[in-house]
Design goal:
This protein has helices at 5-38, 42-45, 61-67, 72-103, 109-121, 128-138, 144-168, 173-180, 185-196, 198-214, 217-222, 231-241, 246-267, 271-278. It has 281 residues and is mostly helical.
Length: 281
């Protein structure tokens, strides 16, 4: 049987969407097990019940215990303080650097940009010991500022990469017109460049908030005080303190996802536009 060109196209599309569906199921499966485990009691989880099976009795108390007994509200408060400080200030510093690299007549601007990019190539694991030694001498361990400072430092390279690409797509004729109207370079940056870069900034808010909220290694090294731990570090205490209660742990994970989901829903309509603008030469 010979298929026509139109039939071949329809067959190809059917196979393509079937493959995408199978891949989607693989991606969704862990989330399904996470949700189902969060509503299982400790006994049911260790009874041999399938990860995809519904429990006989829903253990909704896992969510309240994660918030109260697991001190998840404290961990989320700490993470929100650090994220709400780091994300806007870090993006503002990155925007100023990207503005200088693209709109001001800097010598060796390309070399400076490459210097910033080198920071993305160095794994921050190699800096853990020096950071610990320096922070110990400066009494910055177990402080919000200590964690905030390293987050800004390690995130600046990626932010400059995104914003530089977007800023280069803004016509420089707008700067010239603003200068004719009497605007200073600072006013051009605040009143023209930043408003036009909203898609790129929204993209950075999503990516940066997610990275800051979920960062574990630096937070585990710098913060040891239970009262100042962030969500990823705090969730790890569920294993030891509560005898590896996976229902409690999964409930805590689901609750901790809510702030990230809210940030994504608020800024997601600018995400694609911001990434496409950042990839411009």
């Amino acid at each position: 049987m010979v298929l026509s060109g139109k039939q071949q196209k329809h067959l190809f599309l059917a196979l393509f969407y079937m493959i995408l569906l199978i891949i989607a199921l693989f991606w969704i499966a862990p989330m399904i097990t996470l949700v189902l485990t969060s509503i299982k009691g400790k006994k049911e989880f260790y009874s041999g019940l399938s990860l995809f099976a519904l429990p006989e009795q829903f253990a909704w108390k896992n969510f309240t215990e994660a918030l109260v007994r697991g001190r998840l509200l404290t961990y989320m408060k700490n993470d929100l303080i650090i994220s709400c400080l780091k994300v806007p200030l870090g993006i503002f510093i990155e925007a100023m650097a990207a503005y200088a690299l693209t709109r001001l007549r800097l010598k060796h601007a390309t070399g400076i940009f490459i210097f910033f990019l080198v920071g993305m190539m160095l794994p921050f694991q190699i800096a853990l010991v020096p950071i610990n030694v320096i922070y110990n001498k400066l009494n910055l361990l177990n402080t919000y500022f200590g964690l905030f400072y390293v987050y800004v430092g390690f995130g600046i390279s990626y932010g400059i990469l995104i914003l530089r690409g977007f800023f280069r797509g803004i016509p420089k004729e707008m700067d010239e017109a603003a200068v004719v109207e009497g605007c200073s370079k600072w006013q051009i940056f605040i009143r023209i460049i930043l408003p036009m870069a909203k898609p790129a900034i929204a993209t950075l808010v999503i990516v940066d908030f997610l990275a800051t909220w979920n960062e574990y290694l630096l937070a585990s090294v710098i913060i040891n005080d239970n009262a100042k731990k962030t969500v990823p570090v705090g969730l790890m205490t569920f294993v030891g303190e509560h005898g590896t209660d996976y229902g409690l742990l999964c409930a805590g994970v689901l609750i901790s996802v809510i702030p990230v989901l809210i940030v994504y829903l608020v800024f997601q309509r600018h995400f694609v536009e911001g990434m496409s603008g950042a990839l411009k030469a």
